[in-house]
Amino acid sequence: MNRFRYTSYLMAVMLLFSVSDSGHADEQLQALAAQGTAILKARCYGCHGEKFNGSAQFNVMDTAALVEHGYIVPSDAPGSTLWQRVEAGEMPPEDSGVPPLTTEERVILQQWIAAGGPQVQREQRPFKPYSEVIRDIHVDLTQAARDDRPYYRYFTLTHLSNNYSHVTDFDVRLYRAALPIFYASCTIQQKSYERDEWRHSAFTKAILDVLADSRADVSPRTGDGLVSAVELALGVTDKVRTMTGDRQEPVVYSPDRLKRLNILEFGK
Predict the structure, then answer these.
(1) Is 70 left (phi over 0), alpha (psi -120 to 50) or beta?
(2) Tens place of pLDDT for every residue, the chain, 268 residues?
(3) How far is 245 from 243, CA to CA, in rounded Å?
(4) First vs last Cα of the chain: how many Å apart?
(5) How many whole angstroms separate alpha carbon 38 and alpha carbon 44?
(6) Distance CA 59, CA 117 (A)
(7) Which of 6, 32, 40, 243 is 20 to 30 A removed from 93 (C-alpha atoms)?
């Protein structure tokens, strides 16, 4: 009986130390995650995340995308493209106005990559039921002038935000960033044309045709494979004008910072 109690006591002590060590390791990993992501946000995120320079996949705050596209190789900083660019002094570039990483920051970044690019644990996005969406729309409509209400239109990303399993925070942010891009089928003085043989309006058919044609990628960089908001607008406008004999010309309204946003990538 005493031997059983003694053995149980030892097992309990060993388990306690194991849990304590595990908790300490988690704390260290979260501290490294906070330090690593803070460096990337301060030194890289302005161009590779906020402005989407180069590629929409190259968001330094999205570790899964960085690993998937080879920018970081877990446990192998020298073999990671991100580290190679930093080590070579290419990132941040001299003309970016962002100071280079300090020696201490380089050490932390190496450790962060070696640990697999851990992310700071955040609370899950709050679930929003559709009943609340309808309520919000109702409240907004009641505040609008009665004569204006028939012309109000609403767009929601609730279904994406609620999809925790397959839609990341970065995905939600990307969709939100795309919303300010407003594309009108024609100017206010023009008509929007349709024909039976098109099976769509000229505007809709032009969008579908351009998105299916890799020639929409007019970037001077050979093999870019990406279609930006500007490139889409150019392709659609040219096609609509051709289809309608210059009687219809689409108009795009977009903040300058979003015109370079890549919205489509053709397979290579």
Answers:
(1) left
(2) 444 444 555 455 454 444 445 555 677 888 888 888 888 888 887 777 655 555 545 677 777 778 887 788 888 888 888 888 888 888 888 877 888 888 898 888 888 888 888 877 666 788 999 999 999 999 999 998 988 888 777 878 888 888 876 777 777 777 776 666 667 888 878 888 999 999 888 988 888 888 777 666 555 444 566 777 777 888 889 999 999 999 999 887 766 656 666 666 655 4
(3) 6
(4) 71
(5) 10
(6) 13
(7) 32
- Amino acid type, 216: A
Boundaries of CATH 3.30.70 in the chain? 180-265
Which pairing describes strands 251-253 and 182-184: parallel, antiparallel, or unpaired? Answer: antiparallel
Contacts of 257 (CB under 8 A, 6+ apart): 51
CB 112 within 8 A of CB 82: no
Spell out the residues 6+ positions from residue 188 whose beta carbon is closer than 8 angstroms to its own.
Answer: none
Q: What DSSP state is assigned to residue 234?
A: H
Q: How many Å separate Cα 251 from the centre of its chain? A: 25
Nearest C-alpha neighbor of 232 from the set 246, 213, 249: 213
Q: Find tokens 């280079």 and name the residue.
A: 100
Q: Is 201 helix (H, G, I), strand (E, B) or coil?
A: strand
231 closest CA partner among 247, 239, 46: 239
Give me the residue label for tokens 């489509």: 264
